[in-house]
UniProtKB/TrEMBL annotation, chain A:
UniProt name for this protein: Uncharacterized protein
InterPro entries attached to this UniProt entry: CDC45
GO biological process: DNA replication initiation; double-strand break repair via break-induced replication; mitotic DNA replication preinitiation complex assembly
Family (UniProt): Belongs to the CDC45 family.
Transmembrane intervals: 21-43
Lineage: Eukaryota, Metazoa, Ecdysozoa, Nematoda, Chromadorea
Automatic annotation (TrEMBL), chain B:
CDD domains listed in its UniProt record: GINS_A_psf1 (cd11710), GINS_B_Psf1 (cd21696)
Function: Required for correct functioning of the GINS complex, a complex that plays an essential role in the initiation of DNA replication, and progression of DNA replication forks. GINS complex seems to bind preferentially to single-stranded DNA.
Domain of life: Eukaryota
Family: Belongs to the GINS1/PSF1 family.
Chain ranges of the GINS subunit domain: 75-132
UniProt keyword list: DNA replication, Nucleus
Record's protein name: DNA replication complex GINS protein PSF1
Organism, scientific name: Caenorhabditis remanei (Caenorhabditis vulgaris)
Length: 568, 201
């Protein structure tokens, strides 16, 4: 069942008035974390007790529902649960599940067949969903009563009955075929819609409970989707313009000045920013070196790479001295000048949010989103809840002035984020230098031979960024490489040795066409699994295009995937 | 005042020293200064004797010098006031130790107290215990609620699989390992002390 509008009435007030216990099932990603922060703030204001459970895989969600079967609960699933049917989970009759998920498309049973599941969707998105009509996909079983009259009547009537039945069966089969076709089209590609935190921000605004903190959490959540390459820059800008605009002006210094002291108040500004990852916490040279745009432009994985990048810097008129020292230690004029030059060079329309608090430096939501995402996904040796709490601490530290917490944030940025970028760049350069990417019929295949940290391979942030970067870099080497998708395989080590992590990106040509970044890779994987069930695949992730595959089944998988793509 | 002229000190110097001793050690309990206290007492005695002698002269009609009568009285009152301040400050500190350390004093503090002070401490503990017993039905441990709660609810993290837990308002909560909960403060205080839950901020 879809809740389209009026979330305050249909969603929030309901959970507020019910005396059932409230369970938040939170997927561990930055958007979900930000959403939970906002939601728990609202709940705390109303003194509603709640429980937070963190999940990372489908099996964990199933386990939660299994253990809680006899309890009367209201469940809120955040960034998980919409894409698979929740009917199978046997939600107890007194319980209700509310799903706030940015994964698309919804499972059709969640939309039509299950009254206990409520999906929260912004009504502006309904046209994008392209939901098939109910009668086309859900069968109504009301035709049974005619069977009883079979024995009565003359021979002709019986014949008539039989004929009618035959016609009906025929119709049923046609309907079934039609249904398959409709569903195939519906499920063909998966994509991400507006991050959930934006919906929650609007809900908070409706209740007059927006504060600078909530605004900042939303900004970070929105940027994390952008950083993870879940939504395109067009969509990002559109969300900023359409849905964030009423809030952007509220926490500007201009508006706060009237209230007195500006220095120690948190204010949030919205402005242009270089799409260079964490450059303000690094030096420009390194940041450019590992950046997708500059790396591809100078082809710095080749032997001439270093010369090329120096050449580029000379052309731009930036001195080496400026680029190799820490960005923070440059003088203000230099900083503005260099950023200006690079902005012109990169020609991007990227704008983001900045938080300023007292005398501690300005932080961009983009950098914080990166830090939170990386901290949430690594290291795997920590339990899920520990990582969740650490991510929460980092998110909070970005807007509190405490020194200890600030150091924690900058440490994460300067160690984990930088390392992720370096590893990402290294795997791309190794893949291209050693020509590990091969064309395999309708797609390119990359099998990683070097061993990469398991922490990285399990991180969605790393996988999406690296494969996207890799395909672009690969396409830049020769013309005509823009029409095929790239499938990447990374071997796992340690405990789960013998398994591969498989993911994929859509061809570059389609990325330009489509602002939703739809991908059919997940569908292809699913099809392979269906056609040959002996292949050992674990598709436990919330993202259908990240799966685990047993190494021995690799060759068969590659062949079948080829058929799957050719069949499309 | 002739004797004081030689040492060039004030009449209440010793008394001031007592007060300063407390002021200079705000974090610890200095040992009870019996010596200084006695000296202050003697000073008051001495001043009193001098005044008494003067008064006797007046009543006997002998030649006398009444100018110093009032200053001496003022000095006596001042010294007494300093001594009382010293004792009062010590008393306040001892009381705060009861709230901080409970019934048993650490040795370092105990050694710094005089017998009367230890007796005061014991009496104070007894009174407090009796007061707590008298509150409500089973008594209230006031030491648990020293800071006023900012919210009715606290965020806790479950450290073990505890199972179902019923809050006062009848809600059932499943406490599984590594789950976060927001629960009424009074309900989870017990579990926090048992080590099942952990406060998070």
């Amino acid at each position: 069942m879809i809740l389209e509008d009026n979330f305050r009435q249909d969603f929030y007030n309901k959970i507020k008035k019910d005396d059932k216990s409230l369970v938040l099932i939170v997927s561990v990603d930055s958007d979900a974390l930000c959403t939970t922060m906002i939601l728990t703030h609202l709940l705390k204001c109303d003194d509603i007790p709640f429980t937070i459970l963190t999940v990372e895989k489908w099996s964990e969600v199933e386990k939660i529902f299994e253990t809680k079967r006899e309890l009367r609960c209201n469940y809120i699933l955040i960034n998980c649960g919409a894409t698979r049917s929740l009917s199978r989970l046997q939600i107890s009759p007194d319980s209700t599940a509310y799903v706030l998920d940015s994964h698309r498309p919804f499972h059709i049973e969640n939309v039509y067949a299950n009254e206990k599941v409520h999906l929260l969707v912004n009504n502006s998105e309904m046209s994008e969903l392209q939901l098939p009509d109910v009668e086309k996909v859900i069968q109504e079983d009301s035709d049974d009563d005619e069977d009883n009259e079979e024995n009565r009547g003359s021979y002709e009537q019986q014949m008539e009955n039989i004929r009618r039945k035959a016609i009906k069966r025929e119709e049923m089969q046609a309907w079934e075929r039609q249904r398959q076709r409709t569903l195939w089209k519906y499920y063909e590609s998966t994509w991400f819609s507006t991050p959930s935190c934006v919906t929650l921000l609007e809900l908070a605004a409706e209740m007059n409970r927006v504060s600078a903190e909530i605004m900042w959490y939303t900004a970070v959540g929105l940027n994390s989707a952008m950083v993870d390459k879940l939504i395109s820059i067009e969509m990002y800008t559109q969300i900023c313009v359409d849905r964030m605009r009423p809030f952007v002006h509220r926490f500007l210094p201009k508006n706060i000045i009237n209230q007195g002291k500006v220095d120690d108040l948190l204010h949030i500004t919205f402005g242009r920013e270089l799409p260079l990852a964490i450059y303000s916490h690094w030096d420009l040279y390194n940041s450019m070196w590992h950046n997708e745009y500059f790396s591809i432009k100078t082809k710095n994985w080749t032997q001439k790479g270093d010369t090329n990048i120096r050449h580029l810097l000379t052309q731009l008129g930036v001195t080496l001295h400026e680029t190799t020292q820490k960005f923070e230690s440059l003088s203000t004029e230099q900083r503005i000048h260099v950023v200006d030059l690079l902005e012109k060079e990169m020609d991007s329309a990227f704008a983001t949010f900045f938080a300023t608090l007292g005398y501690s430096g300005k932080l961009s939501a983009c950098d914080v989103a990166r830090a939170v995402t990386v901290r949430l996904e690594m290291p795997r040796s920590e339990t899920l809840m520990d990582r969740y709490r650490a991510g929460q601490a980092i998110l909070r530290s970005s807007i509190t002035g405490e020194r200890q917490e600030r150091t924690n944030l900058t440490h994460t940025i300067s160690s984990n984020c930088q390392r992720t970028l370096q590893v990402s760049w290294k795997s791309v350069s190794a893949a291209i230098n050693m020509s590990e990417i091969i064309a395999n019929g309708p797609y390119y295949l990359f099998s990683c031979t070097t061993s990469i940290d398991e922490d990285m391979i399990d991180s969605r942030h790393f996988l999406y960024n690296t494969t996207g970067f890799m395909l672009r870099a690969f396409a830049s080497m020769r013309k005509g490489r823009t029409s095929k998708p790239l499938i990447a395989m990374f071997p796992l080590t340690g405990e789960s040795a013998g398994w591969l992590v498989v993911t994929g990106v859509m061809p570059i040509a389609t990325i330009y066409e489509d602002s939703l970044l739809k991908t059919c890779i997940g569908r292809a994987f699913e099809r392979v699994k269906k056609t040959n069930s002996s292949i050992r695949i674990i598709d436990d992730s919330f993202n259908p295009d990240i799966i685990r595959l047993k190494s021995e089944d690799r060759t068969r998988f590659i062949d079948l995937l080829r058929h799957a793509f050719e069949g499309d | 005042m002739n004797s004081n002229d030689q040492s060039r000190g004030g009449v209440a110097d010793k008394a001031l020293q007592l007060v300063l001793e407390m002021k200079r050690n705000p974090d610890m309990m200095p040992p009870y200064n019996t010596d200084l206290m006695r000296q202050c007492q003697q000073k008051i005695d001495e001043l009193f004797q001098k005044n008494a002698a003067e008064v006797q002269k007046i009543s006997a009609g002998l030649p006398h010098d009444p100018t110093l009568l009032h200053p001496r009285l003022g000095a006596m009152i001042h010294i007494r006031r300093c001594m009382l301040a010293y004792i009062n400050e010590r008393k306040n500190r001892i009381r705060s130790y009861r709230w901080r350390y409970g019934g048993a004093l650490p040795v370092s503090v105990r050694n710094a107290l005089c017998d009367a002070e230890i007796q005061f401490f014991n009496e104070y503990s007894g009174t407090l215990a009796r007061f707590q017993q008298g509150l409500g039905e089973g008594g209230v441990n006031l030491l648990l609620h020293t800071a006023p709660p900012k919210t009715l609810f606290v965020q806790v993290r479950s450290l073990e699989d505890f199972g179902e837990f019923e809050t006062m308002d009848g809600n059932l909560v499943q406490l599984t390992k590594d789950s976060l909960h927001s629960l009424p403060r009074q309900d989870c205080e017990m579990l926090i002390r048992q080590g099942v839950l952990e406060l998070v901020h």
